[in-house]
Amino acid sequence: MIVKYLLTSSIKRMRKTENLLRLLDETTLDVCLICQEERWLLSLNGEMISISPYENEKSEVTISGENEAMAVLFRGDDFLLSLRKRGELTVTGRLRHLLLLESLWYLSKDLKSS
């Protein structure tokens, strides 16, 4: 449940940032997030962002890794592609989708905690 909590917190920050929601205006993207025994589906559909348990649905992006790497990503403390390059996360998907996700998490970073 650690990933769900972290993911829910990051979604709340995204929803508070109107400019980010505008980025998603015409976006439809499903992301499978895998961390140890947890599997979640992050769905972006226009300005709607939701999470649900992953049950082998089709997803355009898959991100897997340990709790700490996921926490760093969801807090916006590091970039998705940097975490992948260092081997802290395993990521599959089109580059444009990965860059969008990276931007969402980084731009919704909680600046008070920096």
SSE topology:
Blueprint: H1 2-16, H2 18-23, E1 28-35, E2 38-45, E3 48-53, E4 61-65, H3 67-75, H4 80-85, E5 89-92, H5 95-107
Parallel strand pairs: 1-4
Antiparallel strand pairs: 1-2, 2-3, 4-5
Describe the structure in your own words:
This protein has 114 residues and is α+β, with helices and mostly antiparallel strands. It has one domain: SCP2 sterol-binding domain (Nonspecific Lipid-transfer Protein, Chain A, 2-Layer Sandwich). The chain is built from five helices and five strands; from the N terminus they run H-H-E-E-E-E-H-H-E-H. The chain has helices at residues 2-16, 18-23, 67-75, 80-85, 95-107; strands at 28-35, 38-45, 48-53, 61-65, 89-92. It has a five-stranded mixed β-sheet with strand order 3-2-1-4-5. Strand 1 and strand 2 form a beta hairpin.
Write a concise synopsis of the structure shown.
It comes from Alteribacter lacisalsi. By secondary structure, the protein is an alpha+beta fold. The protein has five helices and five strands.
Global Rg: 13 Å
CATH third-level topology: Nonspecific Lipid-transfer Protein, Chain A
Report the principal-axis shape: globular
The helicity comes to 40-55%
Q: In CATH's first tier, which class applies?
A: Alpha Beta
Number of domains: 1
Superfamily (CATH H level) name: SCP2 sterol-binding domain
Across the major sheet, the strand order is 3-2-1-4-5
* Unreliable parts: none
Question: What is the mean predicted local confidence, pLDDT?
Answer: 88
Estimated structural class? alpha+beta
Q: How do the SSEs run, as a string of H and E? A: HHEEEEHHEH
* Fraction of residues in β-strands: 25-35%
* Major sheet details: 5 strands, mixed
Instruction: Compute the number of strand runs.
Output: 5
CATH architecture: 2-Layer Sandwich
What's the N-to-C terminus distance?
Answer: 24 Å
- Count of separate DSSP helical elements: 5
